[in-house]
Each structure stands twice: as C-alpha cells, then as structure tokens.
Design a protein that fits this description.
alpha/beta, eight-stranded mixed β-sheet, five-stranded parallel β-sheet
Amino acid sequence: MSLKVLAATAYWYYRRWGFKATVRRVLAEFRLRVRSADFNVANVRSPDLIDIRDSPPLNEDFQQRIAVHAHVYYPDLVPELVGHLQNIPFKFDLFISTPQRDAQLACEQAFTGLHRAQRVVVRVVANRGRDMAPMVCAFHRDLAEHDIVAHIHTKKSLYTRGRMAGWRGYLLSQLMGSEDQVRRIFGLFENDPKIGIVYPQNFHRFPYWGNTWLSNRQQGREWCRRLGIMGVPDGYFDYPAGSMFWARTAAIRGILDAGVAIDDFPEEAGQTDGTLAHCLERMLVLAARRAGFQAAILRDAEHPSWSQWRFDHYLVRNRAQVEAMLAASEVKVVAFDIFDTLFVRPLLNPETTKEIVARRAGFSGDFASLRTGAESMARTRHGRDVGLDEIYAEFTALTGLPDATLKHLRELEEQVERGTLMPRPDGIALFRQARACGKRVILVSDTFLPRSFIESVLATNGLEDYDALYLSNDVGVRKDTGALYRLILDRGGIVPDALLMVGDNEHADLQVPIDLGIRTCHLLRSVELARAVPRFARVLERVQREGVLDEQIALGLVVQRFFKPLFYDRLDSSSLIRGGAEGIGYAIAGPIIFGFVQWLAVRAKKDGIGKLYFLSREGQILKDVYDRMAAETPGAVPTDYLVLSRRTVTVPMIKSFDDICAIAQAPYFPNKLSAFIWYRFGIRLDTSSLEEFDHRGIWPAGKPVEVKDGIQRLIPVLEALSERIIARARTERPALQAYLREMGLNGENTVAVVDVGYSATIQQRLCDLLGKGIHGYYLLTSAKTHSVCDRHGVLAQGYYGHRIVGGASASPLWRLSFVLEMLLSSDDAQVACYEPLGERPAVPSFQPFSDEELGARTVRADIRRGVIAYVDDALAIRRNVYPEFAGTTGLPIWLFEEFVECMSDQERETMAGLVLDDHYNGRDIVRWNGRAEASGT
C-alpha cells in the first residue's frame, strides 16, 4: 500500500470511526499483508489464472477486426487512456462515449491522433448505467461488427474514500500496459479458440466477497433466464470486477444483442451496487460460458494469490483476531446468524431439502417450484415475511391437496430440515466466546421455520444462553432488506457501531449491515471455500451441472468434512483432500465403497443370493461396510469372509501340463526364476536346481523371467518341474476342498463371491472345483468374465464398470486399479495355500509380511477410519433425512480421478506410505511412485 493510499484510508476511518478504530484498522492491514505473504508460499493458483508471461506473444499482424469501447466520465483521465491505447500494436476502431457534451470535442482531438485507430467515433450518451450502458445501448451494433472488443473506462470509485486507489491503473496496465502485454493477450486468443474473455485477477484491495451477486441476485436471475443461462450461480463466481476486459464478440454477443435501452438503467444517484450496470458486469463471463467459451484471468504478479477471488484475505484471519473483535470494548451486542454460521447442512444447496421432501412424499408434481411460489405469494398477500403456516395455506390454494397430504408434506419438511442440520463447531465456539466476554448475544435469521423449531434445535445443541432471538417470519421483516437490523437497533437502543454481526451471507450479513454502519465478521460458507479450491471446484461444478440428488448429498458430506472449519493454519490449495490418509479414506475410498455395497445389497437380494462371501484382503473393508449397512437394513443377505487368493485356487486345480501352462501365461514382470516358480506353483528351487537348469541349457543362471508375449522359453522349465507341480496340486486340492466345505460353499444354498474384480478368476476356479455355480459381484469386471458366465451359467456383475475392454477411455478405476487396491488393502497377510496338518484337514499357509507392509499399517488404519466415518455419516443421512440415499457410480469416479491424476505434493507424501504385495505378478512389494501408476521394488 502506498503512503498516499494509506493516508487517505486512515483519514476516512478516523472521520467515521475515531482514533482507536483507525489504529486497529491500520494494524490489521499490516498483519494481513505480512501473513498473506507467508500464507501463499505453499499454495498454487487457480488453473483459471493465467500468467501472461507464459503466453507467447502474437508477433505477426492480427487479421481479425478489433474494436475498443472507452467510456469517458472523467475527461481529466483522457491522456491516461490515450497512453494505454497507444500500446495496441494492431489496427482497431475506437468508440468513445461520454455523458458530457463539452468533453466530446476534447475526446475527438485527443483520440484521433492514435496512429493505429482506423475509426474514432465519439458519442454523447445519457449519464445512466455508468460504463456498461453506453457499450450495450449506444455502441452494441458497432461492436458486433468486430471480432475482438476491448472495454475500458475512466474509473475512479470515489465512494471508496481512497481504499481502491490504484484500481484503474491496475486494470488498464494488465490489459494494455505495453505492446508486449497486448500481443501476449492476443496470443491467448489466437492459440486457444475456447478463450472468450480475458480480464485481470481481482485488484488486491477489492473485497473478496464482491465476487457474489450481493444486491444483484434478483436481477441476475432474471437476466440468466433472458440469456438462456442454466445453473445460475448461487455463491461466488467469476466476472471482471471493474468491468474492463478483452473479449471475442461471439462470447458476449448475448449481452450486446439483448436489446437493452438506456432508459432501462436507473438515473445516477451515487449507487454503489444493485443497478442494472452492476448486474450486467456480473453477466459477462456467464454469457461467454453460455456461448461455449472460457474465461482467462490474468494473474496479478505483483500481489500474487492462489485464488482469483482473493480468498487468501479471508484465510489469513485467525481465531485470536476474531475473538479480539468479539471482545472489543466498543462492541456491546454480538448478533449471530444461525444457518451456515452456527449450523451447517451436508447439502450443496439448501433448496435441495425441497427435492428430498418431494422424493420422500412421492409427490408427482414440481414440489420445489410450487413450494417456492407459495412462499412468494404468501409474502405478497401478507405484506411481510412469512412462516410455514402462511406458506402452506397458499400451497393449499395452489394445489388443492387434501389436508392429510399437506400435513404430511409440512411434517416432512420440518423433519428433513432438522435431520440435515449439524453444528458448526467453530461458529458455536465463537458464540460461547462472546458470552464469556460478557457481551449481549442475539440470534438473527431470515427463515420461514417456526420459532418453536429453531428454539428446539438450539436447545438440542446446548445453545440456550442467548439474550434474544429475531426470526424474520416472527417479526415480519428481513435482514436482507435492512429492516430487521433497524428493528434490532431500535428495540435494543443500540448504536450501529456497538453491534457486531457475525454471519455467512455476503449480502444480508455483510453488505447490508456495513451500509448501516454495523460492524461485521464474515464467515465463509463451507461450499464456497470448497468452490475456491481449484481441484475441488472441478468436481463441485460437475456435480452441480450433472449430478443427481444422491451425488449432491454425497459431495455435501465431503464438503462439510473438510471445509466446515472457520480457521486454517495452512490451506494447501493444490490438494483436493485435506486430513492425510484419514481424509483420503473419507472422501475417496468411502464414497466408492458405500455406493458399491448399497448396490450389492439390493442386487444380491433381487438375485436370490443366500450368502455373500467377501474375498480376503480387499474384501475385508467391503465386508465391514456391508455389515455396518446391513445392521440397519431388514432382510439383508448374510455374509462371510473367504480367505483365498489366485494362488490358492489355481494350483489345486492342476491335473495336466496344459493346466500348468495356463497358469504360467498370466503376465509377469521381470523377476527371478525361483520367485516365479514359488509364487505361481509353490515349488522351491534351491541353488543346485538352478545350477542344473543352467548346466542342462534349460534356463541360464541369473536370467530373469518375464511373461509378456507367451511362455515358449519357459516350456523346458515347466516340463522339468511338471511332476513336482502336479504332486503339489494333489496335496493342496483336498485341503482346499475341506476349507470350502467348512465355509459352507458346497451346500445347496445359492452363493456369490464379492471382490474388487476383474476377470472372475477365483469365481471360475470355485465353480470348477465345487461343480456348482458360484455367482460374483465386483467393483469392476473385464470382458473376460463373459466366458465364465457362459461356461457356468452364473452372474459376474460389475458396478463401476462391467465387462470392460480397456483403453484410454476406460473408467479411471480400471486404468488406475492398482491404486484402488492400495486404498482398499488390509493388514491381512496373503494366503498362499491350504495344507493338511495332523488331524486338521485344512490349515492356511500365509506369506510373511515384509517390513514395508508392516510399516504401511498406520496409513491403512487411517484410511479405514476415514472410510468408516464417511459410511457412518452416510447412514445417518439414510436414517434421518433420506432413506433412499445410496450413492451413485458418477461422483466416486470423479473424485478418484481428480485425486489420483492431479496429486499434490502433500497427497503424494501420504500415498507414499502405502505398499501392496504383487508377488504373483513379479512386482514384489509395490509402492506409489507419485504418478498415475505404481512401481515395484
């Protein structure tokens, strides 16, 4: 901050708030800048942020038509605009608007001298709509005739009292600061046809919360409908704050062709927000995306931030600073918002509760629209804010439904609302801290829920020690209009500066009280912080765009798990998942397993399965989750745990040399011959045997085995060992049969095995060995299962992928299957075979654990804890909110793919603690190598 800006800001604060407030503000600004510099060290920026220095300049001439629109409200800044326009190295047409007739001639004289300006048109436009109205009303046809347009203006923002000094210069410099800068921007357009609009990252002093609708939400919704924009953003979104940009005309044509008239804009009265101009500014990127283009946001190299919205300004605030705000002697009353401040919901959008109500009630119409319409009609009819009584009275008139149905719907709505609410611990801690400071504490909410409902929720969570409760439907006025704040001030005899409002809503809890002179403490909603993390944002946007109800709920659980806290010592914005291995278990493995076992329970019951046998190791966590769910599901198919492996069921089935060769055909990574023979067939080759093979020319000493393109070179070895291998099979076969009898697989009951997948090898061997059909359910199956099903007349069904052929387009769970197995691995040792021992017909023989496997137990335990935590949260949703909640195949795959293919350093470090044995395929102990594949020792 320059001395000039610091002085202006300090003076304005002193005049309004006094000396103490000024000192606090200056110190807070200093702390913010110091901590922000440190905070950003380990973070990465959003992928939408472009470092223009990395973009190659367009050094040849630009062949398309270029136009620049410049709005001149302050004629004294014309020389500054001229200086920047001189940096455009291509021919362009210049269109100037000004509300002042005496400035028209000065503009013509100043701008006509630009040697690359082919046309200079200056028009006097009525002083409405700031810089946006002239662009869309006076010059929209002219601009539409060009391919690329720029929009700039003489911005001063005098209402900010100097706090935003430097904003105009920053924007102009980023867009036209030098010929090289402009050439690089045009290089973006030339090299990427999907880029539709280019603008600077938010000015470093622009408030982060300005990247919401604020007072423009209603107009924004109307304009989105008008422009055919689906999925209207509810929280934070991208737009060029300050309304200066370069754009393809095709990207903003929807706005240029919208038919806006100058009279549609209100007369100028010093408005700082809520006008059509403020709304249209926010529509630019939305319109570009609607037209099929993307935004490129130019990174601020001088004041870097990983967030295009500058969320680092929010995140540097720590608990001690907020507690100091609560304890300030000037603050007499602390007001807390309720929803998303003291309580959160595991929902991406609170309106989802209406969809859940409709699903549970079996409502055939559009309940959400009717319910919203009834609320609007009730407000109009009563001329005040309303509650559920008035809303359902209107709902009755709209639908004509019988009283019993309406009563059921209302009861369901309250039940779903209650079931979704969970405490936000940090928010409640601040509530208790305010009480401990001796402050008068009040609770304030714009809500339709009855007072009795809110009081019950508060009491259930131990929040009864408040001085007053103001609910909009109870008192008739709302926060978002400012009327409820005025009521609180009036009733309590409170001066605005003595009231501190703590809440999440950028308009109702921040902008409105600030305008009234009330102190504020903003708390970001969990979903908005999640939206700011680049990798999480990709998944979030996909779910909001494509996801069904179950996916929205499932991701809502993950959002609340990781973004519910209010304070972060260090938020690694390059990571998808926080919380180490437990976090990975919750967000990645948890949804994968939960979705699968829900499907499994339904499918197995439908298929008439009498018992499910989960195959050992990866099946252990699958069984544990299934049993946890089955305990709450009447009639669930019972389960057992089957300790088997490929090695266990293949060797006992060997009866001929052809059988030996069939087992040897499976791919094998380069490794010792002795290891291959042991792990595939259970035969130990000592040194003398290897020397004999070398001497006889059967296999050279020290030559590794690799099975990749057939086993022709191995045939002599297998022939030499065939008798020993067949003898070994004769020993193991009865022992394995005894174990299977002991487990009940040879009975009349219809049974199925459950495993990760893929080719149903164990299932096929069991069918052959037992002489009966054994069905199978898997996370994934390959195309090879087709032969198993045809040969034995059984099912081999995959949930996340069925009969996959493979290739680059295959499911990420298939392409990265070894990572999936790592996440689901258990601490059980790998069983090698069953052998008789004394009077016992079947005793398992296990492979010994390596040091690496023993060392991975802590990581696996953490992953398991995370999985169980997710499952418990999901089951709570089933019990209390939505009994049909089951998960889907979409979200778990999206999360898994984003996690594995774009790992941060922190996530790679966590995954490095996992290992898995793959002796059967020659890779010995396999560990994560930091890429989208695994590597062996």
